[in-house]
Amino acid sequence: MKESSNHITRSESIERQLWRRKVRRTRAFQTLTIASPILLLVVWEILSRTAMIDPRFFPPPTTIIVEFFHLAATGQLFHHVGISLYRILGGFLMGVIPAIIIGLLMGMYLPVRYTLQPLVMALMPIPTLALMPIIIIVFGINDLSKMITIAGSVFFPVLINTVAGVTNIDHIYVDIAKNYGAKSKDYFFKIALPGALPMMMEGIQMGQAIALLTIVAAEMIGANSGIGYLIWTKYKTFVLKDMYVGLVLISFFGYLFSLLLRALQRKLIPWQK
Amino acid sequence: MTESKIKVDHLTKVFFKKNSSVTAIRDICLDIKEGEFVCLLGPSGCGKTTLLRILAELETPSTGSYHITPGKAGKPLQSMIFQEQGVIPWMTVQNNVSFGLRMRHASKKELNERTEYYLNKVGLWEFRHLYPSEISGGMKQRVSIARAFANDPEILLMDEPFAALDEQNKFILQEELLNIWEETHKTVVFITHSIDEALLLSDRIFLMSAQPGTILREKKIDLPRPRSIELVRSNPQMGKEFVDIWQHLQETVQQHRDKAL
Ligand SMILES: Nc1ncnc2c1ncn2[C@@H]1O[C@H](COP(=O)(O)OP(=O)(O)OP(=O)(O)O)[C@@H](O)[C@H]1O
Ligand SMILES: [Mg+2]
Q1: What is the pTM assigned to this prediction?
Q2: N or C end: fewer C-beta atoms under 10 angstroms in chain B?
């Protein structure tokens, strides 16, 4: 009895040691993740300050930060950021929601899939940005035309991933649903939707990145506000410090949205480890 | 008790793909009575799963027919326990067990009572809020068993439900299955590779040939119930049956191999 309890404490202490080592390793990796961008910024700062790279094109990061606060103080930054976020969110939802619905239908019903598949394949390679002039002619230079451009770019990756998500559901779950008397509606909500959710979320994550890429370009073409507009005008007037502020903002929002979507993913897909 | 529940009439299933075809089962005739517990015993690939899937309406026969006598209205006709672990990953243990009841919109009271009862029966009550990825293989198998029983069908179609379990858990669940069966007297069609299991559970055993699967012989097991594994093991008559079935299977597999060579 004594011996066996000794044995258990020993196993436990070994496991605890292993666990500590694992924690230490994870911490080391986390440090790397934080350190690498900082190191890059430091190198940039030094190279720019010593003029080894042209400070007119690559102003030192510290001056960009100073410029950020300067722009923020005038209030015009918030205006541009607000309007861009509004367009991104609107366009994102306009793309994602129909993509999920059509994707689920294409995944579930073969006639729908075979009818829409060729259209999807033919339309997907056309960059929505190239259609921007037509979108502007039809809808005008307004927020809606930007949202439609974003929606068009977000739509396809989410659609494709949703279809793949449904078609990859193991056939045994379809059999179970059938055998236990699931109706079409049950099958949609209890099998197809949750089964496709993991891949769908990957598609949405991809769509989020594409939405940011698209908004900047769209605001460069036909807009008089927004982060893209800010970047473009500052570039044309050669105020590169301000241009960099715009770029950094875009990258910040990309990071933020990724984190938010990951959190949402953990909430929506609790069965996945 | 003597009423016929499942009648299978010259059933044949051929799987056809491009230009090759496989005859999974050939000319199967069965007459299974209401409340009877029958086992299908045969070598791997002889079409046992195929036969069960046809009865479960997941596959259509090529020729021949079958008829299941419907019972009380409002009760599902049959529920299948799948050979592969058919536990739905995005539902908790509890929601997996209540799946059939939810699909047929059972009353809240019935749903809760039956789910709780069978979760307890298979020893998964404490684990009811976990997802399948968080429980062991044997536990998942118990989830599918509980799901089938909770659904309260007329007929249970069980495809090697205990194959993935260790001996101890297998004994416990076999006895539990017999207990539940004594309570409910459902008609059960049970597939197994284990002769011991077939002797313990069945009223009748159907011995199948290697592919294409046909029914070669049937054996009535007249052992009094309730049975236990010790009882079956210590019964000399059952010892003889075991050897007889074993030799029979040995021969069919051997013949099949000779033919293939
Ligand atoms: N969907 C299918 N398409 C083509 N062939 C199939 C299909 N399902 C089963 N078969 C073939 O039918 C035969 C019988 O298969 P089945 O799964 O019924 O065997 P089994 O008796 O259940 O075997 P095991 O004991 O290994 O589970 C096999 O040769 C298999 O390859
Ligand atoms: Mg099988």
Answers
A1: 0.83
A2: C
**Domain boundaries, position A21:** 1-54
Question: Are residues A176 and A90 part of one domain?
Answer: yes
Q: How many CB pairs under 8 A join A and B?
A: 52
Least Cα separation, residue B85 to chain A (angstroms): 9
**Is residue B45 within 6 Å of ligand 1 at its C-beta?**
yes
Q: Which has the closest alpha carbon to B53: B191, B162, B184?
A: B191
Does B146 have pLDDT greater than 80? yes
Q: Provide the number of structural domains found in chain A.
A: 2
User: Is B50 touching ligand 1 by the criterion CB < 6 Å?
Assistant: yes
Ligand 1 atom closest to the CA of B59, numbered from 1:
1
Measured between CB atoms, does A199 come within 8 Å of chain B?
no
**Average pLDDT, stretch B170-182?**
86
Name the residue of chain B whose CA is nearest to A171's CA.
Answer: B86
Output the six-digit token pair for A70: 């300067």
pLDDT at B260 over 80: no
Query: pLDDT tens-digit profile of B207-250?
Result: 998 888 889 889 998 888 888 888 888 888 888 989 998 998 88
Cβ atoms < 10 Å from Cβ of B226: 10
From the list B1, B13, B18, the residue with the least C-alpha distance to B50 is B13
Same domain assignment for residues A50 and A76: no
Residue B16 CB less than 6 A away from ligand 1: no
pLDDT in tens, A36-51: 888 999 999 999 999 8
**C-alpha closest to that of A159 among A120, A192, A213, A123:** A120
Which of A182, A195, A197 has the CB atom closest to B103's CB atom? A182
Question: Is residue A273 in a domain?
Answer: no
Asked if the C-beta of B149 comes within 8 angstroms of chain A's C-beta atoms, the answer is: no
Number of residues written out for chain A: 273
Which residue is it, tokens 């605001």? Answer: A219
Cα of B11 vs centre of ligand 2, distance in Å, is: 17
Question: Strand B63-68's sheet: what is its strand order?
Answer: B20-33, B4-17, B63-68
Q: Do A50 and A65 have their domain in common? A: no
Q: What is the mean pLDDT of residues B28-36?
A: 91
List of residues 6+ apart from A232 with CB closer than 8 A: A219, A220
Q: Is residue B32 one of the residues assigned to a domain?
A: yes
CATH (domain of A237): 1.10.3720.10
Taking the Cβ of residue B89 and every Cβ of chain A, the question of whether any pair is shorter than 8 Å is answered with yes
B19 touches chain A (CB under 8 A): no
Q: Do residues A7 and A98 both lie within one domain?
A: no
